[in-house]
Amino acid sequence: MFREALKQKAVGWMLVGGALLLVCGLGGTWVFSMAGVFHGTFTREAGTNRIRDAGTMNWVPLTILMMAVGVILCLAGFGYAWYNIATERSGVQKTVDNVKVLARYAANRAGDMLTEYYQIEEARGTVRFYVRLMLPTRETLEFECSESVFNSCGEGMFGRVVLQNKWLGQFIGYVGSPVQPNDPGI
User: Fold this and answer.
1) Rg (CA), the chain
2) Contact 159, 172 (CB under 8 A)
3) CA of 87: how far to CAs of 1, 81, 129, 166, 167, in Å?
């Protein structure tokens, strides 16, 4: 559930690798076919006009395969990203203790970050709320939440959260000092 950086890298490398294979395949197809045409013209038999050697034209199927693999990688990257976006609010609910709120902010429809209350009040109706949390594993992740959960999260607070994939469903702040799992005084 918390391997967001790995997912983003996988999608990025699939898109970059697919685009690179596609471009190399297109360039190789053009180069090898042009060189093969010239080589084939140069090696024709005098009487029958039959090409004796295709030369680099034999490499064209490999470059077409490179293009096909590139297109498949790009489509797989887009499909995987689309699937992750479509299912980011579904899944099993998970309760996590000792979570620290690092930051909270909102975003309007244009994608501008809103950090002050007056900015959020001015942009009513088109605002999405986000909270950045540090989990007990020291991993920091961003979660979308409702306005009521956003208002209950204070920067620097520790508490218990209920997560559902990339959705923060509930935040219950601790009163007093944060509970440490290895504290001998408990």
Assistant:
1) 28
2) yes
3) 12, 10, 18, 9, 10
Q: What is the pLDDT of residue 87?
A: 83
Q: Cα-Cα-Cα-Cα dihedral of 150, 151, 152, 156, to 10°?
A: 80
- pLDDT at residue 104 above 80? yes
DSSP letters spanning 140-153? EEEEEE-HHHHHH-
Mean pLDDT of 113-142: 85
Q: What is the 3-state secondary structure (H, E, C) of 107-118?
A: ECCCCCEECCHH
- From the list 176, 98, 89, the residue with the least C-alpha distance to 134 is 98
Token readout for 69 is 């693999």
Gap between the Cα atoms of 90 and 129, Å rounded? 18
Are 40 and 32 spatial neighbours (Cβ–Cβ below 8 Å)?
no
